[in-house]
Write a structure and sequence with these properties.
The chain is built from eleven helices and 16 strands. It has about 375 residues and is α+β, with helices and mostly antiparallel strands. The chain starts with 6 loop residues before the first helix and ends with a strand.
Amino acid sequence: MTTILTPELRALIEATHYRPAVSIILPFEPKMGAKASIIHSLKLATDKVEKELKINYPDEMGKIVMIRLKKICKNLDFTTHKKSVAIYVSPVFEKVLYLNIDVEEKVIVDESFEIRDLVYSKKQLHKYLVLVLSSKESKIFIGNSNTMIRIFYNNSKSITNEMDDVSERVANFSDKSDRKEIMTDKFLRYVDNALTNTLKVYNMPLFVAGTEKILGHFTKISKHTNAIVDYVHGNFEEATNNELLQILEPHVVDWKKVKQTELMHLLEDAIDKNVIAIGIIDVWREAANRKGRLLLVEKDYMFAAEQGGLTDEIFELDEPYNKFSYIKDAVDDVIEKVLENGGDIEFVDKGFLKSYDQIALIKYY
């Protein structure tokens, strides 16, 4: 993991006396919870570190790390609006990252630390959106493994004024079915426009449920087909929240498949909007310029590189290389840059990003 360290400190970090390396990853939302509770969690984590250091690193290096760690914890920023904190400390290095991702608590005392440990600690929250459609109403729910909660409701009567122009134009139609279809499409366009804002607020996989006929209408007019993971066919106008939860269960049981389908749709959408960087060289440049919204990278992908003359420029490592511009793994650096600037990371299986040179960055837009 490269940082703003001088070449001298970088050499020290890569030497054997770099250890012990301590990583603490914790939920950290002082604006949402009691400060006393966070302090208690920090104390438990530091006590665990101290106990392990006394057993495995009883020498002066272990004591130095513990002093540095306690100082860091004492000076944490309790005014932050972020969701979590990652603390990295060794005898010669320290770093604190405040992040916008939910994490599972993790404490590591080892010979080195990698930024990937932080991403692997990210909670895999199985949350998804469900848009339930009919010709008369729409509902949006947030679902997970246990609950289904409605967050939005709309019906055709609530937008009568917006439909009046259509009503007048089709009033003389002799075929009532034609009039009904035009009115249905008008309503579905309204629903689709409202869905735009929902998807901006809730970054989750989207399912759309309804009869085959209504879904056929919706897919023809929707601007969000790339965001839809799957369609659920049936009449769900009268379905209760618990019934919807059971109906969606077969569609979300393989969560890995759900996520990878969603990610592929996001990649396709980013290509259409020209807001994507592909390959480590381009991804590094965009991440260095704080444009990273979502980084996708294949597990175990690493890339040794050499820093160019500009901070947003790297090259594939050639032998012999300049030890002062050497980057052990540019992927770890990109992960850190994206996280520090409020972006998110998703690891995917090997081969998933074969067409994207194993790494891709969706940019802010």
